[in-house]
Please model this.
Amino acid sequence: MPLSFSEIRAWANLTKIEPEAWEVDVIKQLDRAYLAEAMKK
Model:
């Protein structure tokens, strides 16, 4: 299951990190790439 925006927001709140929009986009892209590779196995 891919990361949701609410999960990324929860992480940001817990760590006191405010990612910029492009950083959230990169996290989502990396997550999709990871899941795609994991499904191949």
The mean pLDDT is 96. The chain has one domain: 5-40. The radius of gyration is 11 Å. Residues 5-40 form one domain.
